Structures are given as structure tokens and as C-alpha cells.
Amino acid sequence: MCGIIGYTGHRPATPIIIEGLKRLEYRGYDSAGVAFCLQNKVHVFKSQGKLNNLENKLCSQEIYLTTTGIGHTRWATHGLPTEKNAHPHLSQNKRFALVHNGIIENFKELKHYLKGKGIQFNSDTDTEVLVQLIAYYHEQGKSILDAIYETLNQVKGSYAFALIECAHPNTIWAGRHSSPLILGIGQGENFIASDIPAFLNYTREVIFLEDNEIVELTPSTYQIYSLKNKKGISRKVTTINWDIQSAQKSGYKHFMLKEIFEQPKVIQDCLRGRIDECENTVLFSELENFPLPARLNIVACGTSFHAGMWAKYILEQIAHIPVEVDIASEFRYRNPLINKNDVIMVISQSGETADTLAGLRLAKEKNAKVIGLCNVVGSSIAREADVVIYTQAGPEISVASTKAMCSQMIMLFLLSLYWGNKKQLLTPNFKSQYIAHLLELPEQIETNLQILHQKANHLAHKYSWANSFFYLGRGLNYPLALEGALKLKEISYIHAEGYAAGEMKHGPIALIDPQFPTFALAPEDELLPKVKSNLEEVQARGGKIIALTNINSKLEVDDPWIIPNFKSPFISFLILPALQLFAYEMAVYLGKDVDQPRNLAKSVTVE
Q1: What is the CATH number for 309?
Q2: Can you give the residue ranges of the Glutamine amidotransferase type-2 domain (predicted)?
Q3: Does the active-site annotation cover 431?
Q4: 388 and 299 in one domain?
Q5: 3-class DSSP state of 398
Q6: Cα torsion for 499, 502, 506, 507, to the nearest 10°?
Q7: Are residues 274 and 162 in the same domain?
């Protein structure tokens, strides 16, 4: 969602803030702004649209005189995406400026209260009540910290915020509840941001703020306080070992393409330290004292949900563990039947997905054990789960997730081998074969990615006329069909439906005509004869077909897309980038904003 960056230090603040906002663009936004204090006055610059609109307003030399400031990219939740609703928001007395990520659920009541005190509002946002209420309590004689305490104790909802005040030009106050906020610790300078890439050029030393914590920052100091008792808190400093190149395009046209081509390295990183080749076993030291699941419930959203659906087939087949997979936004509200012996796995790339985090908390309320599978060290899910398994995908900048799903699938596959071995279900031959295939995967995928890219480019140009697509698959390929359809929708804005191929004749077949192409996942496996039968039904109605398949399948379709005949389930790791590349090339050909598609945000931290 929205992106926050704050800086206080010894350098000109505004260029650092703009740079940080550019690194947060992947979160999605419709307006942007900055604020800083100078000559006992708060200065605010903001604009609708992309960051270059904001930069065009920052032409005054004065902006280089300040060494403290805050910035924001807004993704509209309350109020239209207009300049007046852009952040930062000013208090009525113009002493305070505030940026905010989240939703203030009781903002109407607070706004009514403040209007009764004579305070006028200048925007339609929920955020403005925060800055107006803090300023109001400060005018009543409270210190800034006490005014923040008083305000936050009245607020219902989620927030991450950063605040400046004109009489303290080198200080930033910030806090969080149910929205991510990270403190960056430098030498004579400190940062606050929604995500690490915003300040990674300057420091790798970070502190992950917890819910209901406030921090007061100056260039040389920081102090964290508990909202509950106003006491100071010590927090561990974590060193981030990404290099900045990991968060840059490295010569690729788009982050999405770069991240698709990083999948061989991601698989390598996922496997590192997880396999004992001498014993042919998979290692999860995190789970040594964790109960073996009798039943597993996977809870996730979007692409992570599809990874969980894919894992259901693997876990049930290899580890004989019954698996249910829930969309997090449904799971959290349906009063699921959970007992204390159940194991819940929550999957989230960011570790901050609001519905998934709520599902985790619901599971813990019911005394279930929770495994968190996420990519971001120190994220809320990582901190709150009983056990966390990191996917090792590195920073993923493009809004459309690619390498994160690959890493989730690899880790879930490894978990099936780990639990299957724990249950003594795997023969030595099975283990040695599967581990050998896993270790060969990075090189095999690296060898084929460029060929896949070329074919995706050709097919995208050929089918760019289509307004709708079917994606069909069976078994393991059904969740991948859902993901292929999602990717096409996300970045090319072409309507697409993913279906279990056997379900097509239960209604959707009515849509088939020559203008409605089908993208079939049809590798040479035990379900291929069934898929062939489904595709014949499509052809009988004049539908055009692209089929991802193998050389020996002998499928007679409009466009066979031949890929190497990997053993199942390993072929999934070729099918996945093929689907991603087709969606990518379609979006590029149609002139869409690939990395920041309309209406979407990288991390969905509000409902």
C-alpha cells in the first residue's frame, strides 16, 4: 500500500526522501508528497500522479537546506486520488505534518469531535484526523509524545505514521499498529520507512518496530516507547545482507522480467543449507521441536494462495498429510473449526498481508500452532508465528509476484520431503532421486529461460487481439492455471479465467468461440489423456488453443509450446516462468505499466 520514508541526519533530506520514494514505487501509489521544517515553518509539497510530478515542484534551492523530512506515496483508500488528499497532511495550526499508511476505522467519530472544537479539515482522508488530533492535544499543553499517546489510544484501525513539528526541525516521531514500519540506523543519521529498500543505499542496520510502539528520531539518537505504558524499549538491531543491486533492475527493462530470470538463483538459495547430500535428507532445524502435523491448514492470499493450493497436492502425495487451503479473507471470518492439535501455515511474501496476519492471530487465539512462510526478515508474520521459515527470494520489487511464488513452492516441496521422511514414508531410492532432481533444477531452468522468453514473445504478439482467455489444468497444473490467469489479469488487464479442466463442461464451455482462446497446461503425465479430451471439446467449438506441453504428447493444437519433459512435479518450475513470461510479454506489447499495474499494491496491509 502507501509508502513512508523519513530521514534525519547530516545530508540534504529531500533528495534522500525522493530516492526512497522511488524505491517504494512498487507498493503502488496515485499521489506523492514531502514535508520538512525550515525557519520555524513546515513546508509541504505534494502532487497527484507519478513522482516526476512532485519532483517538478521541488525546484527551490531551499529544499537543500533542511536535513530532516518525511515523504509519502499514497494509494487511495479514503478520498479520491487528488492533490488535496495526498500526504503529508498539515494540522490547522500548520505546526505539524504527518504521513500515514493504514486505515483509521473510527475517523468519522474523531473528525466530528474535532469539528466540534472548531477545527477545519482540508481533505477527505481518514489520515487528517491523526495530525489534527495530535496538534489539538499539544495545544492543550501536552508534550508531543503525550499528544501522540493520547491520540493513538483513541484510534481504532491500522496505522504506520511519521510526524514532524516546526519547533523541532531535526526530530521525527513515528509509530505503528498492524502496518509495517522499519527503523534504519546510520552514522549520524537515522531513517524510518515502510520497507528496507527505501534506505538500503545508506544503511543495512535495521530495527523492526512492533505493534503499539512509537519511536523518536534525531540524527544521532533514537528511542522506542511502548504505547501501553510509555516506557522506553530496547530492540535488537538486525543486519540486512542484501546488496543494493538486488533491488535494482540490473539492465532488465522491468523489475518483473529481472525477477523471473532470478528464479534459478532463488531455487539455489532456497536449497542452500536445506539438503544433506550424504544422508539424502532435507533439513529444517526450525521444526526440530515442532509437532508433526496430523492435519495442515494453509492460509494465504493471491499468488501465495495458489502456491498453497499447489502444495496441497505435494504434501498429501508425499507426506500423507491432509491439507486444507483457505483464502485468508474468508478464513478469518468463517469461524473455522480449529483445535489445539492443528497446525496452521500462513504464507505471505511480505509477511504483512493484513488478512493473512489476521488469520494467524485467529489461529493463535484458538491455541493452534502456526508456521509462517514469508520472505521478509522481521515482518509481522515472522515475529508472531510460532515458527518462521524464510523463502530466501530476496527483495521483490514488481507488484506482480514471480520469484516469490517460485521460492514458496520450493520450500513447500522441501517440507513435504522433510515430513514424509519424518513419517518414514520415503524409500532411499525415492529420496535420492528427488534430491538429485532438486539440485539439478537451477541449471536446467537457467538453460531454458531464454528459450521460454522468445516463445512467450512470439505468442503474446500473435494473441494480443484477445479480450479474454481460459487457462486450463488438472492436478498440480490447476493451481498454476489459476496463477497464469491471475498474472495476465494483473499486468495486461485482459480478462482471464483459470479452471480445473474437468470443470469446463460444467458451465464455462458456453463461452468458447473463435474469439476466446484457451491456454492449456498439458505436460506429458498421467492426466494428459483427460486434458486432451477437454481440449477436443474446445476445438469442436472453434476455440483456439495454446498448449504448454512436451514433444511426445502429440497434441494437435493451434500453438503447441514445447518444453523439456521434466519429471512431475519438477516440471512445475518450468511451467511457472512460462506463464509469467507470456503475461509479461503481453503487457509489454500492449503498452501497460508492467511493474506498477493500475489499482494494485505490492503489499496489501489493509482489508
Answers
A1: 3.40.50.10490
A2: 2-220
A3: no
A4: yes
A5: coil
A6: 40
A7: no
